[in-house]
């Protein structure tokens, strides 16, 4: 098996980052929460950003759909509890 390491500090592979992204992690911070990648020396953060930028993010798509719906209805009211 050929493993390409993204984060040498914590031994996180490219496949692991992609799996976390498939599970909904859309930002380097969310990847860090899932597997610690990017939280020690930080040299892998740009690589993580590049990996995340290549695929579609289900959460990002939902956020964009919600913002389009809000701009379509200028009278829409959003409570902070609804936005979370």
TrEMBL record:
GO molecular function, one term: metal ion binding
The keyword Electron transport belongs to this UniProt entry's keyword annotation: yes
Keywords, alphabetical: 2Fe-2S, Electron transport, Iron, Iron-sulfur, Metal-binding, Transport
Domain called BFD-like [2Fe-2S]-binding: residue spans: 5-53
Entry similarity comment: Belongs to the Bfd family.
UniProt-recorded name of the protein: Bacterioferritin-associated ferredoxin
Species per Swiss-Prot/TrEMBL record: Streptomyces antnestii
């Amino acid at each position: 098996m050929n493993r390409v390491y993204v984060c040498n500090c914590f031994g996180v592979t490219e496949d692991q980052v992609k799996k976390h992204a498939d599970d909904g992690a859309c930002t380097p911070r969310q990847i860090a929460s899932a597997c610690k990648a990017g939280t020690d020396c930080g040299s892998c953060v740009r690589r993580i950003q590049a990996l995340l930028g290549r695929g579609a993010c289900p959460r990002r798509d939902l956020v964009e759909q919600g913002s389009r719906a809000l701009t379509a209805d200028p009278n829409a009211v959003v409570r902070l509890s609804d936005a979370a």
